[in-house]
Structure formats: C-alpha cells, structure tokens
Amino acid sequence: MLHAMPRSGQPQAFELVLAWVDAQILEGRLRVGDHLPAERELAATLDVSRAAVREAVRTLQAQGVVHSFVGAGPGGGTVLTSVPSRALSRLLRLHVALANFPLPDVIEVRIALERLSARLATVNALDEDLADARRALEVMRDPSIDRQAFNDADTEFHVALATAAGNRLASDLTAAIRESMRLPILDRFRHLRDWDEVVADLRSDHEAIFAAIVGRDADVAERLVEAHIRSAWQAITLADGGGAEHTRECADRP
Amino acid sequence: MLHAMPRSGQPQAFELVLAWVDAQILEGRLRVGDHLPAERELAATLDVSRAAVREAVRTLQAQGVVHSFVGAGPGGGTVLTSVPSRALSRLLRLHVALANFPLPDVIEVRIALERLSARLATVNALDEDLADARRALEVMRDPSIDRQAFNDADTEFHVALATAAGNRLASDLTAAIRESMRLPILDRFRHLRDWDEVVADLRSDHEAIFAAIVGRDADVAERLVEAHIRSAWQAITLADGGGAEHTRECADRP
DNA sequence: ACTCGCTAATGGTCTGACCATTTAGTGAGA
DNA sequence: TCTCACTAAATGGTCAGACCATTAGCGAGT
C-alpha cells in the first residue's frame, strides 16, 4: 500500500533497501543516533548494487531520516537523525510552488496550527522559552528595517512561539509552512503600496499576541493569532497594486 | 539556508540537479504533467554523472514531486506529479516510529486539523462529497467487524471528512497522520480489554459528528470532533491492560 | 610519552555497460 | 492501399568497478 509498484510486481532494488531500513526502525533495532551499515556492506547484505543503496539513502535523506558523513570510524557513515523540519519545508515549498497546495488552503492550516501553538505556549512556555520571540519583536521594532528582514523576523517570531509551545510536530509544520510561503510573501511585500501602514499593523498585532501569551490568556492569544494571520494575508493579497496576481513566484535568490 | 552543505563549500552533484529542477519549477518552466529531461540528457546538460541525476530523482520522488516510467516516447520518462500525500505519510510515519514526533504531540495537531476540516466540511461539503464518509459509517456498523477493519474504516471516515472539506493540505496531512498512527493504534487495539464498549462509543461519536455536519452546525461538529479524538485516545492509552506500553510498534505487515 | 605518517574505511563521483519496457517507424505481405 | 509484424531507438533500472577526498586509528620512530 505504501510504495509505488513498478510496472511488474517486483520491487525496485532501492525499495528493498528502504524496506530493510523500515523494518529495522519499526522493530527498534535502529534508533536515532545509530549508524546504518556501510554502503558497500549493506549492498552485499541485500544483494543489490551500491548505487541502489545510495538511491535509498537519498530517499531517506530527503525524508530527514538520515545524514551522511564521509570518513572512517564513528565520525563517518550514515547516521539516523531527527531533523524532519528541513524535509517538511522542502516538501511543502515544492508543492506550494507547483500549486498542489493552494495558498488559501495553506493559510487555513497555518491558522489552525498557530492557534494551537498560541494556546500551548500560553499554558506551557516558561519565560526563557519566549526569549527568541522577544528578540524577534525587538528586530521588528526597528523603523528602518527593510521588507525582507522584517519578513524574516516575522517568521522567526511565529516559529519561536510554536517552538515555545513545546509541540514538535506543530512547530516543525509551522516553520515549514512559513518557509514554503516565503517567496510568495516577499513577492507580495514588494508590490505593497502602503508598506508603512501594513508594517505598523503587523507590529502591533505581534505585540498584542505576545502580551496575551505572557499574560496567560489563552483564549485571547488564540483569537489574536487568527485575526492577525487573516488580516495580514488580506492586506498583502487584496491591497496590493495588482502586480502580484500574475507574477509567478519569480526566483530572487542570488 | 535550505540544503545541507557538505563538508566543504561545494554542493554535491545531486544537489546541482535538485537546484536546477527547483529553479525550473520556481520560474514556471516546469509544471505538473511536464517531463523532466531524460536522465542521460540532464546529466550531460549539468555536467554530472547519470548516477547523480538518479539520486536527485529519488529525492524528488521521495517528496512526491515526480514519478518515473520506463519506455520511450510520451509514455516514458520522469514526470512532475502532484501526489504529496504518500510522501507526507511516509515522512510522518518514519518520524513517529523514531519518536521524533511524540504521539501526544501528533494527537494535538490532529485535533487542530480535524476541527478545521469539520468546520470546512460543514460549510462547504455537498451531499455527494460525504458519500465516502457515509460508506465508512456503514462499514463500522457491522457488529462482526474485526479490529483492523474497524480501524481502517475509522481512518477512511476521518479522511473522507477532510477530503470533503476541500482543503488539500489539511486532508493530506490528516491522511498522513492517520497512516503514521496506524501501527501504534492497532497495537493498542489488540491489547484492549473492553473492545465492545470502546467500539460502541466510537460508533456513536462518528454518527454524531456526521449528523452535525449534515445538519450544518459547525460549532457542534468542531466540538464533537475534538471530544471524540480525545476520548478515543484516552480509551486506548489509559484503559489498555498495560500491555501496549512496552510493546514497541511491532511489524504486522504480511 | 609524543608525534608523524601510513593504512584502511567511509561516502562522493564517474564511466560504461547491459537489461526490460515502450514507442515509433519501417518494410513486407495481403 | 492497408495491415501487421518486426526492428530500431529511447527510456528508466541495475550493476560492476574504478578513483577521489576525508577521516579515524594505529604503529613506528623519535
């Protein structure tokens, strides 16, 4: 049910390797921090070529399950990791770019997740957990900040709240969603006419959300987060000069 | 910021290919349904080996972005797809198995997502959109149903609601989360003592949720969904005979 | 006891070959 | 002219074997 089957019923060579690793993980023989057998050894064990093993490793790497290091001894080899956020980010980003996930859908999910995070942060977060969020607020207070830097600090604020909430899945998804929307948001930011007005609203939204969380008012925090995300999205979609509508997410990386 | 850098500053060969594909997608030159250049051709274009291209393709495949077909002509080649749900499922399943995402965290996110889906389904879903959910309800009404079949119908019910809600990201995430919890849930099901009582509760929960949705009462639907998920989780975690606690997700696939 | 250098093991990469599958064209036969 | 079988080409799938850069560990020499 899980893996795509090729034309015939035979699993592909790299799927054999994936199935082997799956089984090891499921049966608890492989845990985070453990080393996979060396590529040549695993290839010999499973009677496939080393190329097949490497393709499987790439698959696992794309899922954030392993990370490879060159060199001999304990420092080298392919190790089970626990960094799913990068993998989630890349996956979401690609599918948003392909329009498999329409942005309005993403926004709704983002609201649901950040409402959860706001509530959890209100209940669980200690003061030092909120240090990152506080720092992001400081950065956004700078009147001379440019649009990209503001957006990055904005992202950091929301991700910091999600992290402070202590729910790993929620925070990783939140980070992934923000990352997936980075280019579309920057594109709309660029076409904003009343930037100063928008950024003032965003600033006060953030301050109010933060105050509600440190004030331990979960209901208000939840409500403010939802209102903030909705109004911000509306501001950069409806109020733009119309230039963003037909602008395909154009690459601006150096 | 996105891709892991190897030891030195040089990007790895397969990352060159990924970057190229990324750029094509971002600039709109590659859309869903389009063919990637043939592996040999792409290798020549980017001046890397075919093995490197294949590793990149495996990465993209793991992200649900492409699917490969053997053979010449339009029927063959590697094609951009839009099936992120399998990729999401596998990613979540692995990380749940590795305990990178603790199950209680997953449950909280699931509640947030399904509350959203319930609300959206109440507002958006036409009657025919709910046919799958209705069919799953029928299946679960069978008194002689075994635990695995019940769980599969249960999953189908929740996923059908999410699909009827019309939010692709929410439904894909819901499906992925259910899939990632399948083995842990089945394991706990197996150790349940008062199965008949639990299943009766689940049945009535589902019927009530469905009634609230067709009755267009979003608030009630949301509330019922959250209560249902919480009570079901509590029933299979707290009320089990203690056997599930130390049972590592043991494989039961054929 | 310390240092230097060698060796082995690792992943990273490339080359070149062969296979199975599929399409498209081509030619022989009706 | 049409039809069918066959061939050729293009595709991904797989493998074997080589070489490289990096790293850890060991051992000889000081």
UniProtKB/TrEMBL annotation, chains A, B:
<dbReference type="InterPro" id="IPR000524">
    <property type="entry name" value="Tscrpt_reg_HTH_GntR"/>
</dbReference>
<dbReference type="GO" id="GO:0003700">
    <property type="term" value="F:DNA-binding transcription factor activity"/>
</dbReference>
<protein>
    <submittedName>
        <fullName>GntR family transcriptional regulator</fullName>
    </submittedName>
</protein>
<dbReference type="InterPro" id="IPR008920">
    <property type="entry name" value="TF_FadR/GntR_C"/>
</dbReference>
<feature type="domain" description="HTH gntR-type">
    <location>
        <begin position="11"/>
        <end position="83"/>
    </location>
</feature>
<dbReference type="Pfam" id="PF00392">
    <property type="entry name" value="GntR"/>
</dbReference>
<dbReference type="GO" id="GO:0003677">
    <property type="term" value="F:DNA binding"/>
</dbReference>
<dbReference type="InterPro" id="IPR036388">
    <property type="entry name" value="WH-like_DNA-bd_sf"/>
</dbReference>
<dbReference type="InterPro" id="IPR036390">
    <property type="entry name" value="WH_DNA-bd_sf"/>
</dbReference>
<dbReference type="Pfam" id="PF07729">
    <property type="entry name" value="FCD"/>
</dbReference>
<keyword id="KW-0804">Transcription</keyword>
<keyword id="KW-0238">DNA-binding</keyword>
<keyword id="KW-0805">Transcription regulation</keyword>
<dbReference type="InterPro" id="IPR011711">
    <property type="entry name" value="GntR_C"/>
</dbReference>
